[in-house]
Design a protein that fits this description.
three-stranded antiparallel sheet, 13% strand, disordered N terminus, 222 residues, Phage_tail_collar_dom, two-stranded antiparallel ribbon, elongated
Length: 222
C-alpha cells in the first residue's frame, strides 16, 4: 500500500517540534534563574551555589567527615595570609581576628553553635563575629529563687532556783543547756550547705564539622 508523504514526515516533524520546545523551555527558565542567581548559577542538593556547583567565597558548609574538601578550610579560628586569600579577606576582614595587615582569622566554630546576626524579639543584639555563652554556670545568690532554711536549736528543761540566771542558763545549780547563746548578745545563723560547683549548661547536641570556602564565586550585593 503506498504511503503518503505526510504520513512519513509526521514522526520527524514531531521530533523536531519536541526538540524545539525543549530549547525554548530551557531559554525561558534560564532567564529567571540568571536574574535571580547570576549567570551560570544552579541549585544543587538544596544548596544555592554558583555555576557548576561552585560555592560562594566564604560560604560555610556542615559535613559529617573529618577533613576539609579541596578549596575549603576548617572553621577553627586559624590565621590566613591576606596576600594568598585576598577575596576571602575582602569579605571577612578582621571580624574574626588577625592584624588586618598580613593576616586575618577564620571563624572559630570548634565546640560552638552559630546563631543568627541581629536582634530577635525580646533578645539582645548580636553583631557578626561576637562570641558568648558558657558550657558550665555557677549560680549566684542573686540568681536563686526566694527560699528559707531551717534553724535547729538544742534546748533542755531544768528547775530554776533564781529569777535571773547568769549567762542565759536556765538555772545555776541544774544541768540545763544554753537556751540560745552562751552570752547575753549574739547573732544566730544557719550553716552553709552545697559544694559551689558549676552545673552543666549544654543543650543536647550531635557533632559535625564546619568548613569555609576559600575560593569560588564572589558574592554580589542584592
Amino acid at each position: 500500500m503506498p504511503t503518503s508523504p505526510s504520513s512519513v514526515e509526521q514522526p520527524g516533524r514531531r521530533s523536531l517540534l519536541k526538540r524545539l520546545s525543549g530549547v525554548l523551555a530551557g531559554s525561558f527558565l534560564a532567564g529567571p534563574l540568571q536574574a535571580l542567581f547570576g549567570r551560570g548559577a544552579t541549585a544543587t542538593a538544596g544548596t544555592l551555589t554558583g555555576g557548576g556547583g561552585t560555592p560562594f567565597v566564604a560560604e560555610i558548609i556542615l559535613a559529617g567527615f573529618n577533613f576539609p574538601p579541596s578549596g575549603y578550610a576548617r572553621c577553627d579560628g586559624q590565621l590566613m595570609a591576606i596576600s594568598q586569600n585576598t577575596a576571602l579577606f575582602s569579605l571577612l576582614g578582621t571580624t574574626y581576628g588577625g592584624d588586618g595587615r598580613t593576616t586575618f582569622a577564620l571563624p572559630n566554630l570548634n565546640g560552638r553553635v552559630p546563631i543568627g546576626r541581629g536582634q530577635g524579639p525580646g533578645l539582645t543584639d548580636r553583631e557578626l563575629g561576637a562570641e558568648g555563652g558558657s558550657t558550665a554556670v555557677e549560680l549566684q545568690a542573686s540568681e536563686m529563687p526566694t527560699h528559707s532554711h531551717v534553724l535547729e536549736l538544742t534546748y533542755s528543761t531544768a528547775l530554776g532556783t533564781t529569777g535571773s540566771p547568769a549567762g542565759a542558763f536556765l538555772a545555776s545549780n541544774a544541768s540545763g543547756l544554753p537556751q540560745y547563746h552562751s552570752s547575753s548578745a549574739g547573732n544566730m545563723a544557719t550553716g552553709a550547705t552545697g559544694d559551689a560547683q558549676p552545673h552543666n549548661n549544654l543543650q543536647p547536641y550531635n557533632t559535625l564539622a564546619y568548613y569555609i570556602a576559600l575560593q569560588g564565586i564572589f558574592p554580589q550585593r542584592s
